[in-house]
Amino acid sequence: MSDQGPESGEGAAPPDAVLDELFATIESRKEELPEGSYTASLFTHEKGENAVLEKIGEETTEAILAAKDDDRDELTAESADLVYHLLVLFAMKDLDVDDLRGELRDRF
Asked: Which one, out of 2, 3, 46, 79, has a CA that is 20 to 30 A from the CA of 10?
């Protein structure tokens, strides 16, 4: 997932904007479909949406196992993978981070 945008340093989003920057990069990859982009490959995969759904299941399982093993670093890494793939699914379904924020706000 190295094509998601700047990770640190100059040009990196402030921590509270990282999901917005990540989602903007996902949307850009969806539109431009650059060769060699993992994100673009998810939008053009022969399995279609199922490829992303399978990744969400895989990352969920890995996060659960990391939590069970009390491996905080691995739990953090697998959770980031899970959120990334969930945002790809959102882009596929024409949803965005604001839809997620709105749903979360409505819950409390």
From this structure: 79
